[in-house]
Amino acid sequence: MRFTVTGEQRKNDFLRTVILLFLGYILLHWVSNGAMYFLNMTLTYDSVVGYYLGNPDEFSEPRSYEGMLEVAHFHLFAMGILLITLVHLMLFAPLSDRAKQAGIWLPFLFAVGNEGAGWLVRFAAPEFAYLKIVTFLGLELSLLWVMGVTLWSLATNRRGGYRVRTSSGEA
Hints:
By secondary structure, the protein is mainly alpha-helical. It is 71% helix and 2% strand. It has a two-stranded antiparallel ribbon with strand order 1-2. It is elongated and about 60 Å long. The chain starts with a helix and ends with a strand.
């Protein structure tokens, strides 16, 4: 990350390639995340409730505590690493502080909300299915925005974010 702070990614083709490949890899993750969601549910209340609470018409059982815990254990760690890396790259794009705050907070909030909403549907109340739908869409859109901003900054060789101070002022 030192290279993004100093602006070296603008001069180093290898580093730009690594960042570009990382964004491509994360785009594949983004697509597979959506595919996995739609493999099990749709954006309707009934499908979300049926997935977590079971559906007698489809002979599906409610999600088990153990199964949900295993998924949460992996998701919380993996999404945390993904988000800290992706959001860190976005910080060096030429955006306003307000846009950067949104780029930091929204993906993290939607990721935690998306994971938590399933637990709430299963163990609190089926009405939390609406929260699951909103947080899934919010996570997907906020990740796409952060990836897009990072790609735009990389493609246009524009840099914002941190400034390096020298003895004569800002560099």
